[in-house]
Amino acid sequence: MVFLLSETEKLLIIIIASSLFLLSLIITICFVSPVCWLHKWFIESNAKKKEDIKICYSAKQLLTQESKHFQLSVIPHYGANSEIGSKHKSKHINEVSIQVDQNKAKKQSIASEESVSLNTGSIKLEIRYETISNASIRLFINIIEISKLKQRDYLVDPSCYVSIILVGLKNRRRSLINKAIPSALYRTSTAKRCLNPVFNELFVSQDLPKSILKDGLLRIKVFDDERYANDLCLGEATVHLKKVDNTADNLIKEYSLLSSKESKGELLIGLCYLPTSKRVTVSIMKATLSHSTNIQTSNTICYYIRVLLFINGKLMKKKKTATTQKMVWGDNEILTFDLMSFESSESAFMFVLSFKQESSQSPSSPETPVVAEGEESPKDRHIGHFIVGQEMWHQMKQQPRKQITKWHKLY
Questions:
Q1: CA–CA separation, 211 and 351 (whole Å)
Q2: pLDDT tens, 362-404?
Q3: In 79-118, at which residue ranges do the beta strands (DSSP E only) sit?
Q4: Taking CA 115 as the corner, what is the angle to CA 160 and CA 306, rounded to the nearest 5 degrees?
Q5: How far is CA 260 from the centre of its chain?
Q6: Is 73 within a domain?
Q7: 389 and 279, same structural domain?
Q8: Are 180 and 192 in the same domain?
Q9: Which of 122, 129, 273, 361 has the largest CB neighbor count within 10 A?
């Protein structure tokens, strides 16, 4: 049977066939070639979905290497007793919901406690000034001692030093030559492993304008000279120079140190305690930086997490994650630590967020506590850190073989 087509019908069939061919060719090129914007959009959307799925599954995954019998939280029932199983399941779901509400309440209470400034110690200072001329003075700042400091969460006394910043506020009068009063930085020596260090160090400023007695202030910060992470601010105090009485008989005054509220960022981790094997599994998930952190983001900067295990204040083991540019690790970064014969009350973990250039080699991080002098990474690579102490250990003991996922602030 032969069909006779007109010229118009032949032309229409040719147009349809050629259009289908061109459409399939364009789709194939767009999904294969990395130059096309459809290919980029498709790849980025798939990458985002995979990252979300990894984070979701890592938060729910039970990180245990013990027997599978410990993982059963609901006993299955079959046959005529299936109603018992459904009742047990509904009861378990109610207990989980109640537990989630309690964890939310605990998190809110912890956040409210952190918002309140706590007294972390006191510092004794002697502040006086000497008149050089009618328009200039000279400050004398004597750091005497610090008292009532607290031990760190990993059972080590702090090695502290004092940093003083002399700040001058801008003057409103444009006729003055010194529109901005200069600032200066003073730093004491480091007192090794002491809760009540004595310094007796005197600092003399340069010639300053006399107007600094009205607008100037001293910002005093006490830092712990940390060996394995960035220096931690133990407390701070502010002294307004207009309140300094230079004619008093006793110029020595004691100021309370308030805890610092500055946070470098946050880190999301999951911890699981296995009491039978005395093992702790750590899952590193995600990190964020605060706006106050002065780090220029670029394609050459990579981030990684260092986890250090301390037993009675002594470093026993340290591990680190792989480097990433997006500060997202997922469920692949699982670090395991054996507590051996030590009690949980004697151990603590330190988490350190660090960065490095992609071209440079990362600092060494052996699993054994062999540390050679001069081989530690510079402190400017460390962004912030926090310590998992007895409060977190109490939660892990109450919920053994269950991962506890929580955001922690970096300081």
A1: 45
A2: 444 444 444 444 444 467 789 999 999 888 888 888 899 999 9
A3: none
A4: 55
A5: 15
A6: no
A7: yes
A8: yes
A9: 273
